[in-house]
User: Fold these one by one.
Assistant:
Number 1:
Amino acid sequence: MKIDTLEAALTAVLGERLKKLVRDRGELTVTVPAANYIESALLLRDHADLKFEQNVDLCGVDYSSYKDQAWEGPRFCVVSHLLSVSKNWRVRLKVFAPDDDVPVVASLTDVWSSVNWFEREAFDLYGIIFEGHNDLRRILTDYGFIGHPFRKDFPVSGHVEMRYDDEQKRVIYQPVTIEPREITPRIIREDNYGGLH
């Protein structure tokens, strides 16, 4: 099978750089250490047995409470989805940032130019710093935004809200005025509610 060929090639080419290889639901996921991230990406792209010419997606992940349980290991991960057009196969590449307080991994913009805005998005939403990225700045949130909204410890209502101030004739930021609350769904236990029989 094609997936067996790809698994063997990944194992042979990445060698000791391969920290973990998972085969699940007909897909392969390889995890490499942050120290070998660029080297592994170049091998995935350039090696004749792999030929992953395209990085079709890159995103950040916050594993701080994965599957509603305590997570053992580094908190922040960068996940890329690679495509080989010439070989007609795909692989998922994962790397964990070694430091949870200041998550840093190397930028892959010199390997696949398509990751430029994906890395900016992961920086903006998760606070993952991509070392070597030549234009790492926010892409989705406002320039004055504080924090990273996809982190699991970021409050749902945020820290600030903005509104137009008639006196100052401009938009201003102010602390959030929404009262935090827990929404409990309404459960109806009537037999004939809404005319249903």
Note: Residues 41 and 111 are 7 Å apart (CA to CA).
Number 2:
Amino acid sequence: MRIDIPEQKKLTYEMVIPIRWGDMDAMGHVNNTIYFRYLEIVRIEWMQSLGVALDPNGDGFVIVNAFCNFIRQLEYPGDILARHYVANPGRASFDTFITLERTDEPGVLYATGGATTVWVDFPAKKSLPLPDKVRALLL
């Protein structure tokens, strides 16, 4: 199933991620599981840029689903430009979308992915309304 990035989205973060030799598999391209690691890296870096600490004794984001569309094979060596977007803020959740392209091929998508994220009280294991500070960053 291919999930496209919605037109109504907000670019919230960009970063460059190096492709490591160890990211490749026996077929000579970046292993499919590593794409999810790249998506995680940019999502965590974005959260940290917001000052959102990952505290299991407090509240914060949790992923309730994740997806990745593999468009082209990434290969070592190279660097990836990852762009992080948000969309569809709700009471306690919002969607994140990420595009991956090589820095030496601007505008050529290699993968798109994302996740639905929910703001939760970790100890209580229950969703909470998005804090006003976080909601403001999503709009």
Note: The mean pLDDT is 91.
Number 3:
Amino acid sequence: MWVGVGVEQFRLFWAINLPTEMKTKLALLQSPLRGMQAVKWVEQQNLHLTVKFMGDVDRRKINDIVQAVELALADSGSISLELDGTGFFPNSRQPRVIWVGVRGEVDKFLRLHQTVEKSLIALGFPPENKSFSPHLTVGRVRTPNGVGDLINSLETAAQQLACFGRVDVTTIELMKSVLTRKGPVYSVVAGVKLAGVGSK
């Protein structure tokens, strides 16, 4: 009996990677709160804006995925975004995710997400059922214990830092995530420019 060889799967997502100085400022928001055991904080090097999460993907599809997104974004143009403000999903009474808000050309960001989603349907990646809400995840709440202190401390830290800065997005990148005991390790698989210049 013939036994097929397992196909290598990559855990993939499309993302906007942030400048180092912006990641440093975001880490300053997390720093005074890291002693709180109720939260698992996203490591500084992993901070990003998600465009489209794809999950486990046959690595043989990667070239087709990149080509489809590259073609769809050929005339998309750059996007100017600003990171400002903090909040919780689904709400502050039952927080599960701690986020930093996205302002600026948010409509363009939404169209970017929709364009990427539509370009991948033919390759077997259906659109997500939930609505897309542009944000940057900085932490995930493990337990409801101490949530009141967390909310107050987060508000204080955010007020002291004011705005986290602006980023002019000219490229999105296909990221590979490897899950380890210490947390996920991300690496860039490919990049697609937003101004019709092609891939990196």
Note: The chain has one domain: 9-193.
